[in-house]
Amino acid sequence: MTSEKQVNVFALVMAAGSGTRVGGEIPKQYRLVAGESILSRAIKPLLEHPKISAVTVVISELDESLFRQHCGHLKNISFIFGGKDRQESVRLGLDSFSRLNPEFVLIHDGARPFLPKNVIDDILFGLETEDCVIPVLRINDSLKEAVADRITRSIDRNQYLRTQTPQGFRYSKIMEAHLAKRGLSLSDDAALLEESQSLATVNGSEDLFKITYENDLKKAARFIASNFEYRAGHGFDVHKFGLGKGVILCGVHLPHELSLIGHSDADVALHAITDALLGALAEGDIGEHFPPTESEWKDVSSRVFLQKAIGLMEEKGGEIVNVDLTIICELPKVGAFKPRMRQNLADIFQTPMKNINIKATTTEGLGAMGRKEGISSHASVMVRLPV
Ligand code: CTP
Ligand code: MG
Questions:
Q1: Whole-prediction pTM value?
Q2: CA gap 25, 85 in Å, rounded
Q3: How sure is the predictor about 300, in pLDDT bands with cuts at 50, 70 and 90?
Q4: 283: how many CB neighbours lie within 10 A of its CB?
């Protein structure tokens, strides 16, 4: 695989397990860490990686509604149903790619919520010259052999490595190995190939730990608390009415006898949210990024502005916590359009609807909004940024 040549790299996220060791009412991959499911967190870095063409999640038939509830906000992912053990689930997942002619596949555990982008980069770089690339960690503690919890001898820890996921493979090799070794129950995919292939390694990450026991859920919460800070931002915008038919709010067209006047599509709600997000990121304001003097932004959909601000947030490794929007106008009446506006925002932010709120109010006839001269909006956003 060369960097210049676009090759087909697919990702498979394993989430068909029942998480018996963690216990609880729902499988561990659907448990929340700082408001977002472990599985959604595990999927996102793969979904956002520019060199990965498609992501398929393997889930249990019993969990379809949990999956829709916790990962429905992620666009461009597909899912299939898994099998009785991890190995069968992986084989079914690999098989689902067979007609798409994949060259490489990354197989990741849906129970590893913190996947650093540089680990994916290193694996993909490794696959330029290798057929199998496995992220590993050295062992720091002294290693002992034990029988019934009694130490019998010391072992040379330098001979051992801890393996993590995602594990990267040439598709044909891992598919072949899965077909040849059906029925064996091994704990990772590298184990299927270790006899027949040389397995290259790259540095994994301590952040990439798997949620295996109840304690790991606490560790994940601590990870977020100690690695991220919360930042609030506020945005305000106003546009006046002029000739035209209808207004655009949060990307939704609302019928009205007038339009909002502006350089772009004058979506006053998206402008306020964009400014709020830029505020939380300390990135100035919308006018600095998209000067109204530049013809490039003439009549453009304001979604472009918000998406650019979201891009800045993602470049910093940030994630949206919530958005709260207030639209101020006498007319048009916004209420009936709120669900579609909310859905649009959830889609743009790729976040569950629970993180988006829209309010609308009049000013009781007072001031410019009260005289129906235009529409104004206030927005607050909260983001989580790496410290
Ligand atoms: N997995 C899977 N299909 C299975 C079993 C496991 O896709 N039949 C997935 C899990 O959902 C998890 C990953 O493989 O994301 C790693 O497995 P593990 O940590 O063992 O998860 P569980 O099998 O769900 O947990 P446990 O072993 O405690 O029951
Ligand atoms: Mg298991």
A1: 0.88
A2: 20
A3: confident
A4: 18
Average pLDDT of every residue of the chain: 95
Assigned fold of 9-212:
Spore Coat Polysaccharide Biosynthesis Protein SpsA; Chain A (3.90.550)
User: For residue 5, what pLDDT is reported?
Assistant: 53
Residue found by looking up tokens 């306020």 in the block: 272
Q: CA-CA distance, 382 to 323, in Å (whole number)?
A: 7
- The segment(s) of the chain belonging to CATH 3.90.550.10 are 9-212
Determine which residue's CA is closest to atom 28 belonging to ligand 1: 21
Please write the tens of the pLDDT for every residue from 241-270.
999 999 999 999 999 999 999 988 999 999
Distance 193 CA to ligand 2 centre (A): 20
Q: Residue 228 C-alpha to ligand 2 middle, in angstroms?
A: 30
Ligand with an atom nearest the CA of residue 18:
1
CATH number for 229-386: choose from 2.40.10.10, 3.40.50.720, 3.30.1330.50, 2.130.10.120: 3.30.1330.50
Cα of first residue to Cα of last residue in the chain, in angstroms, is 35
